[in-house]
Amino acid sequence: MDIKWLKSFIAVVEEGSFRAAAEKLYISQPSITVHMKLLEEHLQVQLFRREHTKVKVSAIGEKYYPMAKKTCGSNRSKYERDSPGSPASGCTINNF
To answer: Measured between alpha carbons, how far is 78 from 55 in angstroms, rounded to an integer?
Structure first.
């Protein structure tokens, strides 16, 4: 599993769409789509319900979100965790 997949998943949940997540992460929307497809295949679950142009987090996605945040947060270096202005917990998704 790639940390970028988790960052993309977190961004989609928080932003509510693949497009908005892509803008937040400064990557293309197709990249977000690929990340979500790979993450879902890796986990063998459906994290989102896709409805034409909208996505909604599935029940499994809602349960996975806090775990993704925790996992992403634990992958940050000690420097990132202790830096002034750095969030105390969670994932800093702006830095790929």
So the answer is: 34
